[in-house]
Each structure stands twice: as structure tokens, then as C-alpha cells.
Design goal:
about 5% strand, 2 domains, about 250 residues, flat, mainly alpha, single chain, two-stranded antiparallel ribbon, about 75% helix
């Protein structure tokens, strides 16, 4: 066999390997990029529409075009008085937005405090009972959101179940105000969005390698140290995903 044929046969696998690497490189980006572009379009386009409305002049009930052409000249009309009203003329809208952010953050923290232990228990439960536990977690989604909210209104009303039971037991002498308060608002949002915190945490914790915790115990770590230094850092992506899934819709 000549040296040329040896070089040619040796170069074929390298070219094939390079082609496989390129296909893997662009394939991964294509698989990730297409859903990301789709989600970006779904989330970005409504914001752009709202931004256009916020800076548009109105003619009755119709929003005028931002860009017009008159006598060969390009005219751009932007109205910023709405933003001036928010930040300078009237602080009602700013206070409402900051209040929304505060309640969303509070709901996210409470959901994390409740959901993390439940997700940890769910991930460490026996594999044969996990589907049943997940089914119990998903059961509220089988009922209309409005029906669940109205059920809480019946429970928290002045003449609702909680007040009537408390007065019957002698705990209260008169009904206490629970509806239309920060308490009922936070309780309703925690009840509604708690599964959105539990599911990402469970998906992350169920993949945790138990051998890491066993190694930590062999090295003298306490259960709390192993949890704080191993479990929590490794579940950080689940915490971030759950926090976003709760915080963003709560602000809305």
C-alpha cells in the first residue's frame, strides 16, 4: 500500500468525525434555538404591542400610526405623557406596580418555603408511589380556576366556613375580616401557584445523586450541612425555574 493511500484512508475518519461534530454543534443550537425564538416571539410581541399603544396618540377610540409619510417626509409621533403621569404627575400607578411586585415576591418566597420540603419528600419517596403523589399535586388543575377561587371566597367570607366554625367553637366572638385583605390575596396566590413551584423542584431533586449525600455523611457532615452545601446548590436551577414560574404570573 502506498503512502498516499495510507494518508487518504487516515483522513476519511477525521473528515467524518468533523462532519459529526459540526452536525452536533449546529443541531443542538437548532433544537434549542427554535423553541427559544418561538417563546421570544410569544413574550416579546405582546410587549411591543403594549409599548406601541403606550406611546400612540388617540383619535377617539382608534390609535394613530406612529410612523406616517406626508409630502415625502417621514413623521414619527411618540407620546410620552403616559409615562410622565406614572412617574411624576400621579404616583397611584407606580404604587400599584410596586405593590404588585411586593406581593409577587412574598408569594414566591412562601411557595418556595412550602414547596421545597414537599418536592424533596416527593423526590425521596418510593418510586411506586410517586405517580400517585404527582396525581394529587395535579388534581387542582382538573378544576376550573374560577371555581377554586370562589371556593376560597366561601371559606374566608365574614359568614364563611372559617368564621362560623371559629365562633361555634368559641374561639371568636364575632367574625373577623379576611376577604379583600392582603392575607386573602396572598393565600389565594400561594394556593394557585404552589404547584408551579413544586414541579420544577421535583424534576430537579429527583435526579440528585444520593451518593453525594452519603459521601458527605462519611466525611463527617451533619444532615443540615449536607443539605445546605450539596442539595441546595445542585437544585439551584429548579429553584430559579420555580421562582420565575410563580413570580412572573403573580406580577401580572
Amino acid at each position: 500500500m502506498s503512502n498516499g493511500s495510507i494518508v487518504s484512508s487516515a483522513s476519511r475518519p477525521s473528515r467524518k468525525g468533523l462532519l459529526v461534530q459540526l452536525m452536533g454543534y449546529f443541531g443542538r443550537r437548532f433544537v434549542i434555538g427554535v423553541p427559544m425564538l418561538f417563546l421570544l416571539a410569544i413574550f416579546a410581541l405582546p410587549f411591543l404591542v403594549v409599548f406601541k399603544i403606550s406611546v400612540s396618540e388617540m383619535d377617539g377610540v382608534r390609535f394613530l400610526d406612529l410612523i406616517t409619510v406626508q409630502e415625502g417626509l417621514l413623521h414619527i409621533k411618540l407620546k410620552f405623557s403616559n409615562y410622565q403621569t406614572i412617574f411624576f404627575n400621579d404616583d397611584l400607578y407606580l404604587r400599584a406596580y410596586l405593590s404588585s411586585v411586593w406581593f409577587a415576591a412574598l408569594t414566591t418566597v412562601i411557595c418556595l418555603a412550602i414547596g421545597y420540603p414537599f418536592a424533596y419528600f416527593l423526590a425521596r419517596s418510593r418510586p411506586e408511589i410517586r405517580p400517585a403523589l404527582l396525581m394529587l399535586l395535579m388534581l387542582p388543575f382538573w378544576t376550573s380556576f374560577l371555581l377554586r377561587v370562589y371556593a376560597w371566597k366561601m371559606l374566608l367570607a365574614d359568614n364563611g366556613v372559617f368564621n362560623n366554625v371559629a365562633m361555634a367553637l368559641g374561639v371568636l366572638s364575632e367574625p373577623i375580616k379576611m376577604m379583600n385583605t392582603p392575607f386573602s390575596l396572598t393565600l389565594g396566590m400561594v394556593y394557585t401557584y404552589l404547584p408551579f413551584m413544586v414541579l420544577p423542584l421535583y424534576a430537579n431533586l429527583v435526579k440528585l445523586d444520593i451518593r453525594l449525600l452519603e459521601a458527605a455523611r462519611d466525611l463527617g457532615a451533619t444532615p443540615w450541612q449536607a443539605f445546605w452545601r450539596i442539595t441546595v446548590p445542585l437544585s439551584r436551577s429548579g429553584i430559579i425555574a420555580g421562582a420565575l414560574l410563580v413570580f412572573i404570573p403573580c406580577v401580572g
